[in-house]
Specification:
The structure is a homodimer of 374-residue chains.
Chain A lengths: L1 E10 L3 H18 L3 E7 L4 H7 L5 H9 L2 E6 L13 H12 L3 E7 L13 H4 L3 E7 L9 E2 L9 E9 H17 L6 E5 L5 H17 L5 E5 H10 L6 E5 L1 H12 L9 E5 L15 E5 L16 H14 L3 H16 L19 H11 L1
Parallel strand pairs in A: 1-2, 1-3, 3-12, 5-10, 8-9, 8-10
Antiparallel strand pairs in A: 4-5, 4-11, 6-7, 11-12
Helix pairs in contact in A: 1-10, 1-12, 6-7, 8-9, 10-11, 11-12
The structure holds 3-isopropylmalic acid (2 copies).
């Protein structure tokens, strides 16, 4: 029996509440299976770690993450550790991404169920059928290039950042996008997004994406979009970008957040950040390390009330099984259970949706129902 | 009588058609007034200039633009001068912006009339009342920092661009945003957009915007948004950003295009690129140089058919009168005429809208009606 070590980082705000439900779901699929077992352990990360240790990413947490097969995260941050705080959670997040080499951020944006169409800010005829997966390069570009702060010599009145990409960095993220496109049947189209009419790093990006796909994945369809025009399409014609949106770190930050509001509630969407191509089960199989987390924030305003939507975290757990552990079957089972719960007719005024979707069900009850279905 | 010299750059595709109507509108307000006269002259710029002179921005055109009080532009580019062409129009545009010192790009996004709500990709209740003005820094940031292409020594496998801002560059664009906010009654709120949780240039941006407004315009309300979260709001709650969105070059490129699809047709929206704060009429009044153009592209697919929407260009002409020439009255008159035309009940199957808004009226007829109303 395969045994996997999963590190859990509940984080701040609603993080611990939503993570608790995803943990129950993982424990359930682990108990139900005779092929694998999951060993879960919790560690401190984010604002709570700042409070207890003075730093967002204590070395014991980093070490546990490095030794884990995969990491499930809640959400971090909050006003207590905001812009004016001396120590903030963000650097911890960026260090964790960089140290684990998590270069591939994967963010699907789709409506888990047509019954959710009414929550989209887009007209239903435009939102219906939206099915995009943003594949964002996560440890390169302007996030990790050299920079100079204002007030630093020689030119104190100036600040700058460097947006930098190497051929190898673009190749490897292109391969992840291609693997994801190929996992679908028929394979998904790839829309590469850049600003090649202005930026040198984008011209390199466009050239390397084009060549890598042509040489290694000639069966995939590729087009190129400028980031400004991609941002327009995501509002007025998102289906034009159905498939895989492949882009660099900063554009991916913007476009993945922009697309994530189409389904109407951030509470629904999962994400994965991987250190390599998704795992493919085989004899000499080795898990691909990754962090899995809902895309929503720590929502301190509703923390502790038991009303947060756990679905984004539960679907993140499904991605963890699929991408890090190569366990497609239990991943699909979780996704189907989520879809079922969302589509169940609302019963006796109780409803099967959390408050963000106009329902009255609590975090734990929703988790219960998903566990029951499994 | 004041006399102003206006350079007209019709450009490519539908550019000449839409510009022709805006020119008629300008000639009409000039004839109707005894206070000012407009002297218009046409020059080549863009793809048409590449075809006839080998370069997008011939020196005669640049010289005329430098001597003009203001510039009215159509649209440039097209597949003929696309990504693979040896000479492309974009560098001409960037040179023109830089040479004329056009550091302030102003892009309103609003629904000229509630009767257009049905064309918005957003749900009517979300689109209704959207009224944003993006003020984008246009000649700084990553567009004009040093860069290195792939294939250039020493590290040929790498390409980079520099996102750079100086205190003075951020001060002057902040002042323009403040002037625009103050021109409204009550003054508009300012939403400054950056990525200060990651970028040094954004931290400078945030600090300078905060200080400049606090010291020079303490009466204005300011908040700060991260670019990823601003991109979300523009889709799910754009009214949260009603007022002035003040941002740097690259973020402004993305967010202004994203907001521009809210009104349902790109054909409706104008833009201004200014070399200083908007002109304020006075005794020693000097026009502020600027380029005024619709935000839509050259739309080669419908060029020459006489069906393009001239409203974006006509509203750009109104901005020209207001911002460069300090002529508020004729600017307002044009804007009112446009609103009237859009709200006229459709008459006898003909309609008063162009094809992009589901109507049947041609470019010239729409221009006729606006001239009539004036
Ligand atoms: C918190 C911030 C540094 C981070 C980013 O910009 O990458 C966040 O926006 C994200 O997308 O995970
Ligand atoms: C053509 C391109 C260089 C330009 C830009 O990015 O500034 C365009 O997108 C614009 O916004 O005017």
């Amino acid at each position: 029996m395969l045994s996997f070590r999963i590190v859990v980082l509940p984080g701040d705000g609603i993080g611990p509440e939503v993570v608790a439900e995803a943990v129950r779901v993982l424990q359930t699929v682990s108990e139900l299976s005779s092929d694998f077992e999951l060993k879960l352990e919790s560690h401190q990360f984010g604002g709570c770690a700042i409070d207890s240790t003075g730093e967002p990413l204590p070395s014991s947490t980093l070490k546990a993450c490095q030794e884990a097969d995969a990491i499930l995260m809640g959400s971090i941050g909050g006003p207590k550790w905001g812009v004016n705080a001396k120590v903030r959670p963000e650097p911890g997040l960026l260090t964790l991404r960089k140290t684990l080499g998590l270069y591939a951020n994967i963010r699907p944006a789709n409506l888990a169920s047509d019954s959710l169409l009414e929550y989209s800010p887009l007209r239903p005829e435009i939102a219906k059928g939206v099915d995009m997966i943003v594949v964002r390069e996560l440890i390169g570009g302007v996030y990790f290039g050299t920079r100079k702060e204002q007030g630093v010599a020689p030119d104190e009145e100036v600040a700058w950042d460097t947006m930098i990409y190497s051929v190898q960095e673009v190749q490897r993220i292109t391969r992840v996008a291609a693997q994801i496109a190929l996992a679908a049947d028929p394979p998904l189209d790839i829309h590469s997004v850049d600003k090649a009419n202005v930026l040198a790093s984008s011209r390199l990006w466009r050239k390397v994406v084009t060549e890598t796909l042509k040489n290694e994945f000639p069966q995939l369809k590729l087009d190129h979009q400028l980031v400004d025009s991609a941002a327009m399409f995501i509002v007025c014609n998102p289906q034009k970008l159905n498939g895989v949106i492949l882009t660099e770190n900063l554009f991916g930050d913007i476009l993945s957040d922009q697309s994530s509001v189409i389904p109407g509630s951030l509470g629904l969407l999962p994400s994965a950040s991987l250190a390599g191509a998704p795992s493919v089960p085989s004899a000499d199989f080795k898990p691909t390390s990754g962090i899995y987390e809902p895309i929503h924030g720590s929502a301190p305003d509703i923390a502790g009330q038991g009303i947060a939507n756990p679905i984004g975290t539960i679907l993140s757990a499904a991605m963890l099984l699929r991408y890090s552990l190569g366990l497609e079957k239990p991943a699909k089972a979780i996704e189907n259970a989520v879809r079922k719960v969302l589509d169940l007719p609302e019963a006796g005024g109780l409803g099967l949706r959390t408050a963000d979707l106009g329902g009255k069900v609590g975090t734990k009850e929703l988790g219960d129902r998903i566990v029951d279905i499994l």
